Amino acid sequence: MPETLVTIYEVFMRTYEGFLKAALVTLKITAIALVIGIVLGILFALMRISKSKILSTIANIYISVIRGTPLIVQIMFLYYGITSIIVLSNFWAGAIALGVHNGAYIAEIFRGAIQGVDRGQREASLALGMNKNQTMRRIIFPQALRIAIPPLGNQFIITLKDSSLVYVIGVTELFGLANREAASSFLPFETFMVVGLYYLVLVLIFTGLLRLYENKLNVDKT
Amino acid sequence: MIKTENLHKKFGKLEVLKGIDLNIHPGEVVVLVGVSGSGKSTLLRCLNFLEKAQEGNIYIDGRKIDRKKDNLPKVREEVGMVFQHFNLFPHKTVLENIIEAPMIVKKMDKSKAEQLARQLLEKVGLSDKADVYPNKLSGGQKQRVAIARALAMEPKALLFDEPTSALDPELVGEVLQVMQDLANEGMTMVVVTHEMKFAREVASRIIMLDEGRIIENADPDTFFNHSSNERTRQFLEMVNLK
User: What ipTM does this complex have?
Assistant: First the structure.
């Protein structure tokens, strides 16, 4: 056991420069995927609850397809699909795939949150003469956002970890690098232990930030 | 001011309003009473187009409102509403609750809207609460803010949907007082309430609904003391028993 610990330490010291760079790639992909996911999520959530049959059907299909197929398949599909049409780095193909994937889950989070806002809020807003757009933008959405924050935080953590799957299209993020290191050093156990720690630390930092933000919201208004 | 002709409203198969003809004149305080399920709240909500009546016409200021052609938000600017559960916006302070609609709907500039809001808060006796969030207020205070919020749009009429039913008994008086002040100033009001004392003292007319129909339409004295209607007398006995 002590020998293993020593080896882990050695692997860590030998690889940290590379892993820190790779961690940055992981964070970038995650951030881009989240931005895309939130934009798509809001859009599809609104489409899903819209009265238009066409819009809600499109949103339903999108959500069903994304939730019904594995992320790794989506990444492959999008990578080979997109890069056969336009020139795109595998970094961007991965980020977009992850973003589109996220969009479906975030859409469901937002839909639930919007529907979770008390019906009386909408009525009060309409009764004051506000139109539907103003009501959504100024009254419903801000309240829905607060309901959505805990599940969104959860989704962000899932995304951070899911970003490891883009290694299949050759992006050198944390897991991709770990895979290569494990093979070249013949120390798979130690290497994956180290990369696991990187993910854990990133998630813990993120969880802490999220908690601070939630507390701030709560202190402000409840 | 507000007129309905043969208003029918169904929820699925349940017919809640079965042909309501109502005429509310400027400056009147009309109190709608009836047992629960009689359709009084639904009628009130139809007047503000929060519920869609399947049949019949609604006239505001003599003009027939067409749900499809008319701009409903514009119509609602003229007819404010106060709800049983206040429905204040919890993410906004008291002041922000009040200035929201004037600023967004009427494009009033902020300083002017705030000035108006502060006047209204003074009127409902809550000047010191401008910057607190609604969850720090008592029920009675919330409802008074809700009234101020509705007044900020300078409506021609105000609808009250059981404004005191969600309040602790000791908080009912402060809300009724504000409503009485409004009535004295000549505000046109339609009030659904179980507060018979308010109805007796403030109403210009009392309308009793029963199973979706108007069965009594009389001034308070006639309603409380000389009604010949059997259901009205039963209702009054029930209310008195409480």
Answer: 0.92
- Give the CATH H-level superfamily of domain A2-221: MetI-like (1.10.3720.10)
Is residue B20 classed exposed, middle or buried when 0-12, 13-18 and 19+ CB atoms within 10 A define those classes? buried
| Domain range annotation of chain A | 2-221
Nearest to B76 among A118, A127, A139 (CB): A127
Closest CB from B72, B133, B153 relative to A128: B153
Distances (CA, A) of A196 to A166, A174, A200, A201: 16, 9, 6, 9
Write out chain A's pLDDT in tens, 222 residues: 678 888 888 888 888 888 999 999 999 999 999 999 999 999 999 999 999 999 999 999 999 999 999 999 999 999 988 878 888 889 999 999 999 999 999 999 999 999 999 999 999 999 999 999 999 999 999 999 999 999 999 999 999 999 999 999 989 899 999 999 888 989 888 899 999 999 999 999 999 999 998 888 776 555
From the CB of residue A179, how many other CB atoms can be counted at a distance below 10 Å? 18
Q: Does A129 contact B150 at a Cβ distance shorter than 8 Å?
A: no
- B2-88+155-241: what fold? Rossmann fold (3.40.50)
Q: Taking CB atoms and an 8 Å cutoff, what residues of chain A touch B90?
A: 143, 221
Angle between helices A188-221 and A141-162 (to 10 degrees): 170
Residue A20, both tokens: 């820190």
Domain boundaries, chain B: 2-88+155-241
Contact between B90 and A126 using a beta-carbon 8 Å cutoff? no
CB pairs under 8 A between A and B: 67
pTM: 0.86
Chain B CA closest to residue A132: B73
Q: How many CB atoms lie within 10 A of CB B125?
A: 15
Tell me if A128 and B105 make a contact (CB, 8 A cut-off). yes
List the single residue in B87, B90, B105 with the smallest CB-CB distance to A130.
B105
